Structure formats: C-alpha cells, structure tokens
Amino acid sequence: MYPTLFHNDLEPFIIAGPCSVESREQLQQIAAELSTVQQVGMIRCGIWKPRTRPGGFEGLGETALAWIDDLRQQYPTLRFCCEVAQPEHVERCLQHHIDAVWIGARTSGNPFSVGELAEALQGTSLGVMVKNPIAADVNLWQGAIERIMSAGIADVAAIHRGFYLYRDSSPYRNKPLWEVALELQRRMPQLPLFCDPSHMGGDRRYLEPLMTTADDLGYNGYMIEVHPHPEQALTDSGQQVDVEGLKQLLQKLDEHRHTGTSNTRLNTLRQQIDAIDERLIRAMGDRMAISRKIAQLKKTEHMDAYQPQRWRELLHQRLTTAQEAGLDAHFVRVLYEAIHTESIRTQEEILGDFNIEN
Ligand code: PEP
Ligand code: MN
Description:
The protein has twelve helices and eight strands. With 358 residues, the protein is of the alpha/beta class. The longest helix is centred in the C-terminal third of the chain and has 38 residues, at 263-300. Strands 1-2-3-4-5-6-7-8 form an eight-stranded parallel β-barrel, surrounded by four helices. Helix 1 (24-34) packs parallel to helix 2 (62-74). The radius of gyration is 25 Å and the shape is elongated. Helix content is 49%, strand content 10%. The chain starts with 12 loop residues before the first strand and ends in a 7-residue tail after the last helix. Strand 2, helix 2 and strand 3 (80-84) form a beta-alpha-beta unit. Bound molecules: phosphoenolpyruvate and manganese (II) ion. Manganese (II) ion (MN) is lined by residues 19, 199, 225, 235-236. Phosphoenolpyruvate binds at residues 19, 46, 50, 83, 104-106, 131, 161, 196, 199.
C-alpha cells in the first residue's frame, strides 16, 4: 500500500541535497557528506532550474545528470531525484538512471504541461513527486497527481512547499496554508505527503519550526535543501543548510517526535478535529436544506415524510461506505437514525402532519 521508493524503515523519509548542481566537485562533496546521514533516503539536485525572471543561473542540464550517473556507481545505495518540467527532461533522466523526479510549483499548475509529462512518464518506473502549484488550489494539485497516477506510475507522492501570496504579512517566502495540504491528504489518504520547509520558509531559520508543525500534522517526510557551502550557493542561498545543519535539524525533529504527547502536538491535532467538525456541521446544514426542498416536493405529491423503502436503501448504502471508511457499523447506524429522525421531523413540520410515526 505504501509506495516503496519513497519509504524506508526510518520515518520520516528525508530527501536532501542542493537547490542546484553547480559543479562536479560540489555534487561529489554533498553526496559524500549525505551518504553518512542515515536518515537520508534520497538526494535531490536541481538540474534544470525554473527561474521566475530571466538572467539567473538556470542549471547545468544534462552535463550534471551524467555526473549523477557516475556517482551511482560509487554509492550504489543512494537514490537521486531532480525536477522535470518538459518531456525531454524525463527522457534525459531515464537515460541517466535517475530514480525519481518532481514536478515543480511553476509546472504543476498547468494541466497541459502535466499531461505532457504524464505521457512521457507512462510505462517508466520513475518515482514522481508533485509539488503544490503556486496558487492555493487543492483541485489543481489533486488533478496533477491524478494525471500522473493515471500514467500508471506506482510511486507517487505530494510535496507541500507553500503558496505565494502577494504582500503576505507572514515572514515566510511561501505561506504554508496547512489546511490546503491537509485537505489533499483527506482526499488521498494513501498518498505520502512531504513538506519542503526550504521553499516554504525561504530562510534557514524557519526550517525547524516548519518541520515541527508538519510533524505534528503527520507528514510522512521532508525535502530539505542542503549545500556544502550554503552562503556561496548560486540559487536559494539563504534557505540552504550544510550537512551539519541538516543533522541538527534531524536531531531536533527526533527530539520533538519523542516528546510525544507535548501540548503543541495535542493542540495541532485538536485544530484538525475542530476543522473537520466545522465541515461536518456545515455539511449537516446543507443536508437539512435539501431535506426541506424534498419536503416541498412530497407535499405536492401527497407523499408521507417517512418512506420506509428509501430509508432501508439509504441505511444499507451508508453502512457499506462506513465499512470502507473503517467505521463501526453500530456507530454509523445510530448516527444515521438520529440524522434521519431529525430530517423526518423537519419534513413533517413542512407537510403539516405531525402524526406519522417513524
Ligand atoms: C526546487 O525544489 O528547486 C524548486 C524550484 O522548488 P519549487 O518548485 O517548490 O519552487
Ligand atoms: Mn531551491
């Protein structure tokens, strides 16, 4: 059930590496350093860099892919991933035995581009991670993931890297809007969800607080930018850490995870419960509004509020769904009896008939 490529025995799954490959030496150094960090399950390295404005460092392209291919012989257990934005990138990655790719935030919001990538990925064993689009549109993100899944890709994961908001008052480069990622997780519960605190925070100082929040929310892993000399990095210098920095972060995360029932963890989970309850109550209000419309129709048709056949069918369907959702049948029966009784009571008020038993 859990994809194997994005999972090792060490939860959370850590993907670490430089924003961009800048030279063969830099790549070799970071691979050597990261190979000593047990938790790192995959190395990230930018090969083709999508720059917001022209003129910056745009990556070394295929030259750097060939270096990765060489490194694989030196470190046979290391896995590598890079960003792809065009079908040609996918082809190059396949030629150079890359293990996984990710679709960046500037690409995942474009259904045409994602469609072309899905076509190029069809029939390959590449793992694919889909970053959230720049816009906080959960449907667009889900749609990109679905396009990749329907290309038959077995190992798919989502990466939450935050959303760009104009003149946002928060200190982050991209606002987390955790609820968007949690909604994706609710819709696709089997999909591994990773957090990219580097692009979210835009500053290495924010990595730790973002990771501990993500951990409280149950994220499965992290993609973190790590550079041998972050201050000299050609891209995203302020948000990268060196390997020592990464080790410290992982240590802090581990401590946080072991404080287990800490108040923050409890509060974060309670906030999730509150958000779900809010949706439940509002959905119940919507359901009751429809029930009132049905009452108007029943009135015109001279029908009773209580329709035993419909009630039996409805309950049967709900119990089937309950089983799929792993819910106790007795609990769902009691819940639906209460909902149905209230619905019939409301309809009877409209029908003006208070004598029908239900
Ligand atoms: C990246 O991971 O290097 C990158 C460009 O990220 P994003 O698409 O999240 O901006
Ligand atoms: Mn970057």
